[in-house]
Design brief:
This protein is an alpha+beta fold. Helix content is about 30%, strand content about 40%.
Length: about 210
């Protein structure tokens, strides 16, 4: 590869990471919840789980008809093993839903309704409040990330005593946010679930390599 009549190696230049973040009040709730049904037979456990999860989905949609997305995320059937290692007590069928809610004020009522219809088979795995990564927000974060990358590269070039050249490569990534774990609670323990949205973020990372200009 040549630049201005001079050979360049792949690694020559300056490599930096630029980070852009937009912070606003949260407008999405991501919930993972489901049921764990137990029975002495596989068929009994799976039938019970199917009935319970249908009731949970209905309860969720009754609370937030148009502002919620519901999808199955995990399904697992396994022996109900004893803590002492003895023969299994039966079987457990677990069905977990991924719920995305756009009306945060309904989060508590959805959790209460879903766990109430499932009873002691209910499981709430996680609740994460987030910011919808709209095109406008991502463009804003991208602009911030690029400015951050240019600033860092310019400063490094100054310290190295070399003029900064053009960008040779750019890679964009989005850091993930792990969900906050919640205890597996029975319906009686979920009677009231106050949810305070607070601030949330969307972030974007640009990995940029610049050539030197000389």
């Amino acid at each position: 590869m040549r630049d201005g009549g001079r050979d360049l190696t792949v690694d020559e230049g300056i490599a930096v990471i630029g980070i852009g973040t937009v912070s606003e009040p949260a407008d999405l709730a991501h919930i993972e919840l489901g049921v764990a049904a137990r029975d002495s037979s596989v068929r009994g456990a799976t039938d019970a789980a199917a009935s319970l999860i249908e009731a949970v989905i209905s309860a969720i949609r009754e609370q937030a008809a148009q502002s919620v997305d519901v999808a199955s995320s995990r399904y697992h059937v396994h022996p109900d093993r004893r803590p002492d290692g003895g023969p299994p007590r039966g079987y457990v069928a677990e069905h977990v839903l991924s719920v995305t809610l756009r009306e945060l004020e309904r989060t508590g009522s959805i959790l209460e309704a879903a766990t109430r219809v499932a009873g002691d088979a209910a499981e709430v795995h996680s609740l994460r409040l987030a910011l919808d990564p709209t095109t406008q927000r991502m463009d804003q974060a991208r602009t911030q990330a690029w400015a951050d990358a240019v600033h860092k590269a310019t400063e490094l070039a100054r310290l190295a005593g070399r003029p900064l050249g053009r960008a040779a490569a750019v890679v964009e990534t989005q850091p993930g946010t792990p969900p906050a774990p919640m205890a597996r609670l029975a319906a009686s323990e979920m009677a009231a679930v106050p949810v305070e949205p607070g601030e949330a973020e969307v972030s974007l990372v640009l990995s940029v390599r610049f050539h030197f200009a000389d």
